[in-house]
TrEMBL record:
Gene Ontology MF term list: glycosyltransferase activity; metal ion binding
Matches recorded under InterPro entries: Glyco_trans_8, Glycosyltrans_8_dom-fam, Nucleotide-diphossugar_trans
Transferase listed as a keyword: yes
Lineage, opening ranks: Bacteria, Pseudomonadati, Pseudomonadota, Gammaproteobacteria, Enterobacterales
Keywords: Glycosyltransferase, Metal-binding, Transferase
Protein name: Lipopolysaccharide 1,3-galactosyltransferase
Organism domain of life: Bacteria
Pfam family of the protein (one): Glyco_transf_8
Amino acid sequence: MSRKYFEEEVIQQTLDYNYAQHSDADKFNIAYGIDKNFLFGCGVSIASVLLANPEKALAFHVFTDFFDSEDQQRFEALAKQYATQIVVYLIDCERLKSLPSTKNWTYATYFRFIIADYFSDKTDRVLYLDADIACKGSILELIDLNFAENEIAAVVAEGELEWWTKRSVSLATPGLVSGYFNAGFILINIPLWTAENISKKA
């Protein structure tokens, strides 16, 4: 029985800009899920990771629903300049547009689940980053992190119980009393995510 919520048919096209000098087995995978408004920021984020980690074998995966010829030229030039691999996945978003969204959280929010499902039989871990994140140091600790018992490693938002209680009341969401994590920076334990069926439960 498949544990994928989003089967691979949501990926309509794949563009692989591979100028890497390392093997697939050595690479650490970093993924982004964005709409067209964040393509430029995604390129900046990728460049920041590469500049801060020049000796690391990295591969970048960009899941988006828009990617024109100008974007293709820019991302290929970026991959070539830094001798890295950038794979772009064009997503059919019709199914996603029927899911709940807000002005601040569009259907692109759900790309995280497509990413986790896509990698379910390809690798053990993927670092998901929002496109507005800039890297200022080594990611070696993330590459080597042992988190076998957890589905994800994430940044937990700070806050006192009283603050979280007020947020949960104002948003009519009792589960917020215990806080939440920053969904823009998630190191995903792919085997455990898949085994726990997280995409479907979410």
